[in-house]
Design a protein that fits this description.
Subcellular location: Cellular thylakoid membrane; Membrane
Order of helices and strands: H
GO molecular function, one term: manganese ion binding
Pfam families: PsbY
Oligomer: single chain
Function: Loosely associated component of the core of photosystem II (PSII). PSII is a light-driven water plastoquinone oxidoreductase, using light energy to abstract electrons from H(2)O, generating a proton gradient subsequently used for ATP formation.
Protein name: Photosystem II reaction center protein Y
Shape: rod-shaped
Radius of gyration: 17 Å
């Protein structure tokens, strides 16, 4: 069974962008939750 590397070429940038978005949104959400809990 051959692995199609074109699939990696297409999905890798999408996965990187998605991970970066989750990382940034997660960090902002964490700060917001910490601010809410510290009040």
């Amino acid at each position: 069974m051959d692995f199609d590397f074109r699939l990696v070429v297409v999905l890798l940038p999408i996965a990187i962008a998605g991970g970066w978005a989750v990382f940034n949104i997660g960090a902002a959400a964490l700060r917001q939750v910490q601010g809410f809990l510290s009040r």
